[in-house]
Design a protein that fits this description.
Elements (H helix, E strand, L loop, with lengths): L8 E9 L6 E10 L4 H9 L6 H23 L7 E2 L3 E6 L2 E5 L2 H8 L3 E3 L3 H5 L9 H8 L5 E6 L2 E7 L11 E7 L1 H12 L8 H5 L4 H16 L11 H7 L5 H17 L7 E5 L6 H10 L3 E4 L10 H14 L7 H4 L10 E3 L2
Parallel strand pairs: 3-6, 7-10, 10-11
Antiparallel strand pairs: 1-2, 4-5, 6-12, 7-8, 8-9
Length: 350
C-alpha cells in the first residue's frame, strides 16, 4: 500500500481463514520501505506535472520492482498465496481515477498471482470508488460496540461500524471526511523545508491562530458535506497560500491540527469506540486535538490487534481475498455505486 501522502511503501502479511464475509484475518507482520527517488516521480505525476509516456512507463515498472523487493523482504522464507496491491493514486476525480501499477512485473518477480486496480469496477458502475476499506474494517474490527475507524492519511476517511448485536455489514457507513496529512505535509514542505512535521513537534510549539483555524474548518466542512470521494484538487493548498505570510509557521501547524481535529470529531460523536490509524496517528498535536473532542473511547488500532501503521496494507490483503472469493468489496451506501456492487479486481498470474 502507498497512500496519497506518497511517503512510504507499506506491506503486510495476513493470514486469512474461512471464506467471504465469514472470513477472519490475522495480521502476522509488516514492513515499511522508503520510496527513494520514486517518491519525487510519483509526486510529480500526482501534482499533474507534464510527463512523457516513456517516463510514466519507466516509473510504473520501477514501482512494481520496488514492490517485489518489499514483498520478498516481508515474506523471507514464507510464501504468499495471493498479493493484493492498491497502486499509487496519481489522479482521482470520479468517474476518472488512476491507481498506477504494473501488475505482471510483480506477479512474474514473485511467482504469485496479483490482484490490483480494486476501485475500477465500482467507478465503472457509477460509484465513487472510495472509501474502499469499510468491508475490511468489518472483518478486522466488528464488535458488540459501535465503532468509528478513522484513517488519518493524506485524506481522512471514516468507517462507521454498527454493533454486531444490532446490525450487519449491510449497515456499515463510510465517507471521505477531508484533506488531512495533505494539509500538514504541505505546510511542512513549504514553510518548514522538511517532508513532514515529525511527531507534530512544531505544531505542539505553536499557538492556534483563531482566524486561520476557522477559515480551514470552513473549507474542510465543505469537503465533508460534499458527499463525494476526495482526491485531486482537494488538497487545500490555497489555504496555506492565503495564510503563510500572516501567521507563524508553527502557529499554522497548530491551527491546522486544531481544525482537523474539530472536523473529524464531528463524525465520531455517536460511536462508543474510536479506532485511529494512518500516518497522522503519529502527530501528537493532531492526536491531542482529537482526544479533547472525540466523545467515544479513543484508541489506536494497535489495541484491536492491527498496528495503525499497517492497517491499510493489511486491509488490502483482506480486500484481495474477498475478490478471490467473488465477493463485492464496495458498498452502495458508501460509494453510491448504482444497483448492486460489482466484483472488483484485475488479475495477473505468473
Amino acid at each position: 500500500m502507498t497512500g496519497t501522502s506518497i511517503d512510504a511503501l507499506d506491506a503486510a502479511l495476513v493470514d486469512i481463514q474461512g471464506n467471504g464475509l465469514d472470513m477472519s484475518a490475522c495480521f502476522i507482520r509488516g514492513v515499511s520501505h522508503p520510496l527513494g527517488p520514486l517518491a519525487a516521480d510519483l509526486r510529480s505525476l500526482a501534482e499533474q506535472r507534464p510527463t512523457t509516456a516513456g517516463q510514466i512507463a519507466r516509473i510504473s515498472r520501477d514501482f512494481a520492482l520496488l514492490h517485489a523487493r518489499v514483498v520478498q523482504d516481508l515474506l523471507k522464507t514464507d510464501r504468499a498465496d495471493l498479493i493484493s496491491i492498491h497502486g499509487q493514486t496519481i489522479f482521482h476525480q470520479p468517474p476518472l481515477s488512476w491507481q498506477l501499477f504494473n501488475a505482471p512485473v510483480l506477479a512474474h518477480a514473485c511467482s504469485t498471482p496479483v490482484v490490483t486496480d480494486l476501485r475500477a469496477a465500482d467507478l465503472a458502475c457509477g460509484g465513487q470508488g472510495a472509501p474502499i476499506t469499510p468491508l475490511a474494517d468489518w472483518i478486522f474490527f466488528r464488535s458488540e460496540r459501535s465503532t468509528a475507524v478513522v484513517n488519518l492519511g493524506g485524506f481522512c476517511n471514516i468507517t462507521l461500524l454498527p454493533p454486531t448485536t444490532r446490525g450487519t455489514h449491510a449497515d456499515i457507513h463510510g465517507l471521505d471526511v477531508c484533506a488531512c496529512n495533505h494539509v500538514l505535509d504541505h505546510i511542512a514542505r513549504d514553510l518548514l523545508d522538511r517532508p513532514f512535521d515529525h511527531d507534530g513537534l512544531v505544531a505542539l510549539s505553536g499557538s492556534i491562530h483563531e482566524q486561520a483555524s476557522s477559515d480551514l474548518i470552513d473549507m474542510l466542512a465543505r469537503q465533508s458535506r460534499s458527499g463525494r470521494s476526495l482526491g485531486t484538487g482537494d488538497e487545500t493548498g490555497e489555504w496555506i497560500a492565503r495564510w503563510r505570510t500572516i501567521a507563524d509557521p508553527a502557529d499554522l501547524c497548530a491551527s491546522a491540527c486544531h481544525a482537523l481535529g474539530a472536523t473529524i470529531a464531528q463524525h465520531t460523536r455517536n460511536t462508543e469506540r474510536v479506532l485511529i490509524a494512518g500516518g497522522g496517528a503519529r502527530n501528537s498535536a493532531l492526536m491531542r486535538s482529537l482526544r479533547s473532542l472525540c466523545p467515544g473511547q479513543m484508541q489506536r488500532t494497535d489495541d484491536a490487534n492491527l498496528p495503525a501503521d499497517y492497517r491499510e496494507a493489511a486491509e488490502m490483503a483482506v480486500l484481495g481475498a474477498l475478490c478471490a472469493d467473488r465477493v463485492p468489496i464496495t458498498l452502495p451506501n458508501v460509494t453510491h455505486v448504482s444497483g448492486s456492487a460489482p466484483i472488483a479486481g484485475v488479475w495477473s498470474t505468473p
